[in-house]
Amino acid sequence: MSSLRHIFRGHSLWITAVFMILLISAHASLIEGRMVESTEPRYYCQKKIYQFSEVESVREAACNGFISIRKDSKRPLVHTEEDDDEKLIYEWLFPFALSKNAQGKERKNVERIIFNNSCELLDVLYYNTQTRAFESCTKVPDVPVITYFEMENVSAEPIVRCGSLSWEQTELQLHSTRNLPQFMSGFVEVKDTSSEVDGPWKRKISSKRVVIKDKPQIIFYEIIIDNQNQVRGVVVTHNISRKPSVAHNSNLTTGKTPTLQSAQKKGIIRLVCLLDNTFPLFSSTPISTVTSPKKQKNHE
User: Fold this and answer.
1) Which of 300, 235, 224 is nearest to 271 (CA)?
2) Is the pTM higher than 0.85?
3) Where is the signal peptide (predicted)?
4) Which of 132, 135, 121 is nearest to 92 (CA)?
5) Nearest Cα to 76, choosing from 112, 43, 127?
6) Taking the CB of residue 65, how many other CB atoms lie within 10 A of it?
């Protein structure tokens, strides 16, 4: 009888020990979860709070709007007009799934992100009902400025960037001389480049495969070479939309709500990105220097 009592007591102690271990482990996981949750930056937009990851998903959707080949795709809306298309500033509204009210209904004035042609996030705005103007959401803790490209995997190769697109250098190079005459016949001369030291330049339409909403799309762009067959730059087309009247050089952080009822007008702009460091069109060996684009609008 005494031995049975010892056995039951031993089992009881073992069960208690296991229970305590599980309890401590669960408590530690809960604390860790709260720490992770508390460290993710948030945007406080008066009555709405957005996680940094949610804002990033909105920015990614906005950037895809620049290049999607679907005709019914939503396009970034010009927020601030500029004389130079490269300097245009855009806005993109938060989707219903994120911006709906507590009752699950659509709100009248939805938060929006402000960004540029490089998909760099400039601001997140909310509508202040007291001032009747859009104002900047509060970032807690402070959120760093991140471009769309920095969300991509880090590559050991030099990266060429233009607008919302980027390439590894080898993507722009020709790695085989097969069908070379046919390939080179596709280049046409770029206007007003005969006077350049390495002119005349030539351009050719090429394509890049991208994935938007888990579906592959073929995006067309142009590659520019000089008279020595060095890659001189790339040209990207952005699809955008405009209202009949848009603020010119307005303050990015504030603004009255638009009162125009006219439909948005879709259009396209061309971004010409000239490289600081050229590289051979036919070389399969990447250069060691990372290239950075210059924007130039006077070549067509």
Assistant:
1) 235
2) no
3) 1-28
4) 121
5) 112
6) 22
